[in-house]
What does this fold into?
Amino acid sequence: MILLGIETSCDETAAAVVDDAPTIRAHRLLSQLDDHAPYGGVVPEIAARAHLEHLDILIADTMRDAGLGFGDLDGVAATAGPGLIGGVMVGTVTAKAIAAVHGLPFVAVNHLEAHALTARLTDDVAFPYLLLLVSGGHCQLLEVSGVGRYRRLGGTVDDALGEAFDKVGKMLGLGYPGGPAVERAAVRGDPERFALPRPMLGRPGCDVSFSGLKTAVRQTVEALPPGPLDPTDAADLCAAFQAAAGDVLVDRCRHALALFGRPGPLVVAGGVAANRYLRHRLESLGAPLIAPPQALCTDNAAMVAWAGLERLRLGWADGLDFKARPRWPLDEDRPPAVSPDTADGL
Ligand code: KG4
Ligand code: ZN
It folds into this structure.
């Protein structure tokens, strides 16, 4: 089985071809970082326009890299939510058009499910596993017991961790996105110099909260002498922030493992899972830790093609009338799946 996957839910335009070996036959990604950097965050209208401008050429290039024509595919998958609706529409409409023209099944992929199943593409992980999904928009702990079968054990009550990384990066003048910059600066920093809170630490359950930690970083910056931030101060703050986030994640994952009732494995996914320090901290839990390669932690289309393939090989495709969903919780009951042969519009 070979699928084309399309990802356009945020600020990366991506296409990939993945088979069920599993092998990533080809993948391309066009980052819009430079388009959004002057605004310090993603501007939805700029994102949608950039996806529209580049997606068809990117798909053509990806198919050429794979040495395949659309007729060689078994299906087309696209992120259909959650995400910035303009971009999601560009991706789903393109995928539906390819599916309609070539008589292929279309699979509407939940972006979170794509992150959640990536470890099965990269590490052949068997169900069930515990998943820590940490990205710019999401932070949750889930039990994954099958494709489409997710039980939410806890999540953030305010900010996602990636969002907190981005805001800390911005406060310290490290640019956007903050995550990789904060991680780089933290390597040179002293995590002990500034005392920061550990929200939710030791509380029952698995919820997390990062808004108070972010505010504490802001207050610490404001208490420093006025003027440009000293690079040592910035590095020490990054290290303190990362250490606090690490303590919280380790504590919450320990609780989640107890609720999960098995020794693991613990899978980390989403952009923040690219963070080496946090991966290292999570290893201290003693459960087998599976973290996809960094390039497959942040948004990409291989994970979308793979999630589509996982669904399609169970006989689940979606109608061409499937509506893009800006919000789409992972643990919600999905409408009954239809077989590829009977999918509406095919
Ligand atoms: O999964 P992703 O690419 O997009 C979403 O679905 O949100 O995650 C992007 C987030 C951003 O907030 C970015 O700052 C964060 O992941 N991130 C990191 C690192 N690399 C990316 N956070 C911490 N450390 C990193 N190395
Ligand atoms: Zn993502």
Notes: The pocket of zinc ion (ligand 2) is lined by residues 111, 115, 135, 270, 299 (CB under 6 Å). The chain has eleven helices and ten strands. Residues 334-346 have pLDDT under 50 and may be disordered.
